[in-house]
Amino acid sequence: MPNEAFRRLNGMAMRFWATSLWISVLILQLRVTTQIALNTIESAELGLSAASKISRVAAANPGASSLSAFALQSMLHASSDHTQATAALEKMESWILRMAKDKSLRNQSNMTEAVQTIIIIVNSSMMTSIIDELAIYQDQLDGTLTSFSTCLSALNSSWVESQQMNATLPNKSATHRQCRLEEDQMWYIPADCQQTLDSLNASYQVSQAKCDNMDTTEPLDGRTLCDNRNGTAEDHYRNLYEFWDTYLGWYDGNMSLCQRLMLEVENMSANCTALSQVLANKRQECNNYQAKLDTSSCEYVHNCESGCSTYESCYDAALMNFNATNNTVAEMEASLQQQWRACLRISCYAHALSSPNITTAVEDCIGTTFETYEVAINYTDPPPDQNDTYPVMCSNLTDDVPITDGFYAQHFNNPALPANAPAEVRFLYFCQTRSGGNQVTNIPGGSACPNNRTFVPVSAASSSSSITSFTPGLDGANSWAPNNSLTQGQHNSEYLQVDLQATANVIGTIVQGGSAAGQCIDSWVSTYTALFSSDGVDFGAPTTVLRGSNDCNTKVYAFFNNSVSTRHVRFRVETWHGWSSMRVGVLICD
Question: Is the pLDDT of residue 566 over 70?
């Protein structure tokens, strides 16, 4: 038994072979034309027995006229050209009807055998070929639905990933809020210390003024004693001694008081400074927690937008392919159904020739409506766009963008954070998305700068300090990090500086998390500011806080509305995770 592919090829070849049959019988083609058909059939190793019958029919009718050029073209291409195949079947049908009406044609040599061969070919080969070809088209149409499933599978994966990211936000929000409440409680301690210091300093200033004046003010009572010598000399000197002894005691006491107050002021000042640093460290800790919340939420929005955008493009392409395939299959179905009906009529007419009442049997065939349900394509509607079924993911994301009022209301004003421990303000560049709020539309290669490039520093970089040798560029094996002698609270004074080698128009920055020996590490800069300089010495004011990394590998872009003409770019750490590791790149508009 031939395999499935060979069986289908057999069916198509047999349709071609059947076409040559009716041509041979109808026109009684010359032997050479019959030999062409036989050679074609024999090369496919199909229908040898029936081909022999064709040869005998042609041999019995040597006076047949030659085949027209169009008929020859139809014979050669009927198996691959539906229009010619349909025309061939119509001519075969016309010939059988002629034979049904013309007894002399039916009485020609081997005509009965030829008609039986037609029945075999139509029923066993041509109709089977039509069914097989329809099955191929059905498979093609069904295959287009697989593309929709692929798109939806990717969307589901994004949905799961997005929900996992979103699930972390409430805990990060609660951790940040608790930290701000603790910061608020600590705010009063250095404030009270400062009040005490101010009061103590005021007392010290008054006492110090007196102490300063004691060195220049003469003791009037002593001068009077010196000028008025009453009593004996012994009494006089005794009075002077007692006076100066009292005076010096008073002087030493006041000077001691001044010194004591000065020490108290110095100690209190140092204490207040230490308390202020504790508060500053707490504020930095809270800013770090907020940065984790903000960057995670922004990453969640980006992940949602990316997943939905990718799905939309995938769905549109799948729908376009589905519609195109649908139209093509519908055309092929109509053509094959027309051939199917022709085959059914030919078979009916051929059987009618053996009926006792040929005329009545033929008329019955003519009056019959031949159904095509056996060769009908099963059409299905394309699945709907699933973006609408993921409203949390593909819409309503505005309140998750850290620069929007909705985000502040959700995380910082429900209830409101303490006035003395507010959230750090985020600006336009922090989270650039398509989802509501303030939006920035500049993208790499966008209309704002059609010829931009990314500068990745290899060695032209410096830093405030470094934990080890580093490759500061994006995807570098060893990221930069501050020196390990620093405390965590000192990291926000650290920076990585890049020399662009020449003045350029900078339109954005890129940061990436930590790597050591080519392996991701649990360390990154969550937020940072950028500073610019022409000479690498004098830097202007920093940008607003920019969103940094939320993992060790993702590249996070920040785009500026206006380019900055500069040579040196400084990435200054604001908040971090782990040990403030960072790899960087600079977007330049040429």
Answer: yes
The CA angle 472-477-488, to the nearest 5 degrees, is 60
Integer angstrom CA distances of residue 345 from 54, 300, 352, 543: 21, 65, 10, 83
User: Does residue 190 carry a pLDDT above 50?
Assistant: yes
In CATH terms, is domain 452-589 a member of 2.60.120.260?
Answer: yes
pLDDT digit string, tens, across residues 364-417: 988 899 899 889 999 999 988 887 666 567 777 888 988 888 888 899 988 899
3-state secondary structure of 152: helix
Cα–Cα distance, 131 to 375 (Å, whole number): 6
**Do 88 and 24 meet the contact criterion of CB atoms below 8 Å apart?**
no
66, 70, 74, 77 alpha-carbon torsion, rounded to 10°: 110
Q: Report pLDDT digits (tens) over 415-471.
A: 899 999 999 877 766 787 777 554 333 333 333 566 667 777 765 566 766 666 677
- Give the span between the Cα atoms of 319 and 19, in whole angstroms: 38
Break the chain into its structural domains and give their ranges: 4-151+318-375, 167-174+181-306, 452-589
Q: Which residue has the higher pLDDT, 397 or 24?
A: 397
Q: Could you write out the DSSP letters of every residue in 228-244? A: ---S-HHHHHHHHHHHH
Q: How far apart are the C-alpha atoms of 273 and 276, rounded to whole Å?
A: 5
Asked if 437 and 404 count as a contact pair (C-beta separation under 8 A), the reply is: yes
CA 18, CA 10: separation in Å to the nearest integer?
12
In 81-230, which residue ranges form alpha helices assigned H by DSSP? Answer: 82-101, 103-106, 111-120, 127-167, 169-214, 220-227
Confidence at 39, pLDDT banded by 50, 70, 90: very low
